[in-house]
Design a protein that fits this description.
Blueprint lengths: L13 H20 L6 H17 L2 E4 L13 E7 L8 E8 L1 E4 L2 E4 L2 E6 L14
Parallel strand pairs: 2-6
Antiparallel strand pairs: 1-4, 3-6, 4-5
Length: 131
């Protein structure tokens, strides 16, 4: 392969880096769902290699699923599910629709989440969307 004239580094936009990060996250989730499949090891390896490249350029993907909900978190709340089994003001992130993408600790693309909470917690509100 001839590499003469090819730059050593290529520019990538923040939007393109975020797209790569989200697709890497999806690939990782798919590999986990197919963990008993013959294809799973190859998918996990591909996702791991992509994550390593993203990490080298300072991109991290944050999936908040299972964490206690905090209104100060970056992701947009797209749905709120009431759960009679939760007591008090407990609220947890039930699902990640899209992960939050960060670059060197700074949010560059907030994710979207679904929150599960005890009935009637007034401190949780969906963030207004740009629709």
């Amino acid at each position: 392969m001839k590499t003469e004239g090819v730059p050593k580094e290529l520019a990538i936009s923040t939007a393109e880096a975020c797209t790569l990060a989200v697709e890497c996250w999806r690939l990782t989730r798919t590999a986990e769902l197919l963990k008993h499949s013959n294809d799973a090891p190859g998918l996990r390896q591909a996702a791991r290699r992509l994550a390593e490249v993203l990490d080298r350029i300072g991109i991290q993907v944050v999936d908040f699923i299972g964490r206690k909900y905090d209104p100060g978190l970056a992701p947009e709340v797209v749905d709120i599910l009431e759960d009679q089994t939760l007591l008090g003001d407990l609220a947890v992130i039930d699902e990640t629709i899209t992960p939050t993408v960060m670059w060197r600790g700074q949010v560059v693309q907030p994710g979207q989440i679904v929150v599960r909470c005890a009935p009637k917690i007034p401190s949780i509100a969906k963030k207004p969307s740009d629709d």
